[in-house]
Amino acid sequence: MDRPIKENDLNDLNNQLIKTVEELTHFNYFASHDLKENIRTIYNYSKILKEESPPKEDFDFYLSRIMERSLQLNELIDDLLTYTKISSKKIKNERFSLYHLILSINEDFKPDIFKKNISFHYNFKEGDHVWCHKTTLYHILFNLISNSIKYSSTNIAIHLKKGKYKTLIKVEDDGEGIEKVYHNRVFDPFFRLSTKMNGTGLGLSLCKKMLEKMGGQIGLRSEINSGSVFWFYF
Amino acid sequence: MSYQESEDMPRKKILSIEDNIDDTILIKRAHKKFEDKFDLFTAQCYEDAKKVISDQNNNFSLILIDINLPRKNGLEILKELKKTAATKKIPICILTTSKWEEDLKKAYKYGCNAYFEKPFDYKEFINVVEIIFSFWLVNHPPS
Known about the structure:
heterodimer, A: alpha+beta, Helix Hairpins, Heat Shock Protein 90, two-stranded antiparallel ribbon, 6 helices, 7 strands, 17% strand, B: alpha/beta, Rossmann fold, 5 helices, 5 strands, globular, disordered N terminus
């Protein structure tokens, strides 16, 4: 009786390994593609500046593109490093106020929040604590709030529900929303929804990976023009 | 016979589906040489492209598509266009940085007419696009 079970286990492990190798190959491919795209543009605009001595207006444009691409490259490398570190890093849980964490995230978005007149709503109070790795939760909420702001939301609601063993958090917005057909792809590394937004294409896949590390899961409910709800538990 | 036989003939149109604004700048530079021969339209994604194609009554002599696009990627767009009666006869060239054999195989499976890899150097990039324009719109007999 033992032998077939072991064979099945081995088969499962083998399939898991094949899947992981495939995912890694895809990830490496897209990572090197995106790194190279930025380098190609920086190289070519530098070459144009050196060889063509373009008029002032074009000169300034090429220079600003070089700077923008350099920043994108820097952001991409930071995200790639974070992505690589998640699996290996040991995380230590702590008890802290979710409200205070959100306030510190919102500090980073202050100019956008004021400019776009975005309102925040919470179903929890200052004294409501959560138990998890603080930096990881900061990163996840930062990404989700940042997306809500980017996709034209005017109201962002954050809900907290604490169960006996698990904590559920929802980030709800009234922004552009996401078509159903893309729901299962938004967590794939390097999948992009818009041509307008800058970004590395790694934000949501980083959230997913971080939650898996915390023993949790992430998902969404959304429809085009009806906003989005990103939920996760850990 | 030259390709533009008479002034009464409608001008030929080409569509480039590319979300990378820096590459669109290079494609526009390549088009400069052919400005008197045909018009260049640009789109950044499938939805934009669909609108441009229908606005122009599907009247394109060539479509250039990048692979790495937001939402629907270039291969999915190619498949869609080659499946649609109104667009299936339009020649489609893939212009991509992808060196992936899987992408190349899929592109030909879905019916692309040619697959070009974007060169790293901008002068070579412009040169490749000029070759594409020249072959498909100037020397290639119009269908």
